[in-house]
Amino acid sequence: MAHRKRRNFRHVMEEDSGALLRSALPREWVIHEYAPDYGIDGTVEIFEPVGDDGESFETLGEHIFFQLKSINKSNVVSRVAVERSNPLLARTAPNGPRDAAGRDSVRFDVLTYDMEVDEFLTVEAMGASVAVVLFLVPLDRGEVYAVSLTDYIDRVLDFEDPDWRGKSTKRMYVPLVNRVPTPPAMTLLRQYGKRAKLMHLFNMAVYQSNALEWFTGGEDEFTALTGRFVDRLLALDVWNENSWSILQRYHDTLLGYRELLAGDESPADSLGAGRDTDIRFTWRGLAALGVTYEDLVREWGLPTFNGIMNLSLPDFGPEYGAMIEHTPAPEG
Prior knowledge:
four-stranded antiparallel sheet
């Protein structure tokens, strides 16, 4: 029988989840929706306040691609993850027995969500230089949770189920500690937004390190080259990311080099004896930042031992520390 156009419940859920996402994010951040969309619902553009009046904001040039999914009723389960190395290096089951090294485990609560594999494949095709984030909205809780789909593929799916690409759906586990806008979740989102800038830093540091390693000119030329490299690195818009302490230490080191080179001494003398060795050592460390990022930071916020523990959740306060239970791994 013919009838007038109808509005189904899925449309209502989409509008409700969109409103919850908008209210959970900082008010100065801008959501750009894609219409039509083909696996990516839009981007979040990150802004920061300018001045003290709270009335002006400028873009950081940082964008987070996202998929927004809503569920009418949440399903919360407890997950146990065992300490392990980067899954690219190991094939030990994440919830397997305690090994000879005496690994630890961590217990934490997660939301479950069954994601279509087609959507994972779309995210995988985009590469890892940008982060695609799942914003999961369980409407019965009225909350928003975030996790990186980009990193979930590399660190969870490929490790736990190498054959996932041949299936229609895969169950995801989103940690409850990733609730937006709590401090852990906002740390993750700001890291995701900076990913493209960090990749630029990593590439530049490797290039500069190689140039210094193989430099064969005189001392003055070497010091002048170092000064140019220092200025170029410090000009990058990555150093205001304060959640990754090693990045801040290298920032302080580069500022120290700049101060020495700006002194009254000649450029070659200002860095002192052994300067060539010290400089090359510093740049080797800078060149290794990408390795550290790949090993540790890309796993933050994932439902794994490293993802929960390396985010240092207890540092955010007792409310978040109480959401995880650090216990010995089960005996084999």
